[in-house]
UniProtKB/TrEMBL annotation:
PANTHER family referenced in this protein's UniProt entry, alphabetically: SGNH HYDROLASE-TYPE ESTERASE DOMAIN-CONTAINING PROTEIN, THIOESTERASE 1/PROTEASE 1/LYSOPHOSPHOLIPASE L1
Transmembrane regions: none
MF term (GO), any: phosphatidylcholine lysophospholipase activity
UniProt KW DNA repair keyword: no
SGNH hydrolase-type esterase domain: residues covered: 11-201
Name used for this protein in its record: SGNH/GDSL hydrolase family protein
CDD domains: SGNH_hydrolase_like_2
Keywords carried by this UniProt record: Hydrolase
InterPro entries: Ester_Hydrolysis_Enzymes (IPR051532), SGNH_hydro (IPR013830), SGNH_hydro_sf (IPR036514)
Species this chain originates from: Candidatus Enterococcus avicola
Length: 218
């Protein structure tokens, strides 16, 4: 297990992380975890590693983009003094170009703004934590010519580049999803190509747990 004992692990992102969490509940409490991959990870760590006393916190908010994370980074991340931070953001930064294309250009998150803002979050955090996990945004899509998917690929590349540049752990969730879609339909994991169902959330949780060095046999 690569996570030190008695650590606080904070997950932040958009609706893929949020998944119905209770915003009013105390960070780390059952209702605050939502019903997605964060809750699954918390359950696995609690059940299999009872002696580690790990606290999991969920700070995902529906619809968030990287610029939204920046606005709440101090209160929702730094003030909670986590030991590890997991960031999954980017799908809405791309999606808004397609579902709200008539917004003023300054209201859309360009690739450059995405990179600059993401780097700022890393700069504010890296020296204060034991580890940062950067997760690639993803789609449950097999059509490589899909316009939104093609644009998302650029944002995925930025996340990977930032992980390498800052020597952070990178989890390519698109690779995880693509491997599954080689054998099964995307509808097994998602109804809209973006939001995972419980099968999809288990896939994400499993990828993260592997990166943490989790072993079911413990």
């Amino acid at each position: 297990m690569n996570i030190e004992k008695e650590s606080k692990i904070l997950f932040i992102g958009d609706s893929v992380t949020d998944v119905g969490r209770d915003y009013q509940s105390y960070p780390g409490s059952f209702d605050s975890l939502g019903n997605g991959y964060v809750a699954l990870i918390s359950q696995a760590l609690t059940a299999i590693y009872p002696g580690h006393l790990l606290k999991v916190m969920n700070k995902g908010i529906n619809g968030n983009r990287v610029t939204d994370l920046a606005e709440r980074w101090q209160t929702d991340v730094l003030d909670l003094q986590p030991d590890y931070v997991s960031i999954l953001i980017g799908i809405n930064d791309v999606w808004r170009f397609f579902d709200q294309p008539f917004q003023h250009p300054t209201d859309l998150v360009s690739l450059n703004l995405f990179e600059e803002t993401y780097q700022q979050l890393i700069d504010q955090t890296k020296a204060k934590v034991k580890g940062i996990f950067l997760l690639s945004p993803f789609m449950f899509e097999t059509n490589l010519e899909d316009p939104m998917f093609k644009q998302l690929k650029q944002y995925q590349a930025v996340v990977k580049m930032l992980a390498e540049k800052n020597e952070l752990q990178f989890i390519d969730l698109q690779v995880v999803v693509d491997k599954y879609l080689d054998k099964q339909s995307s509808y097994i994991l998602s109804g809209d190509r973006v939001h995972p169902n419980q099968n999809g959330h288990f896939l994400i949780a499993n990828a993260l747990l592997k990166e943490m060095g989790f072993e079911f046999g413990k």
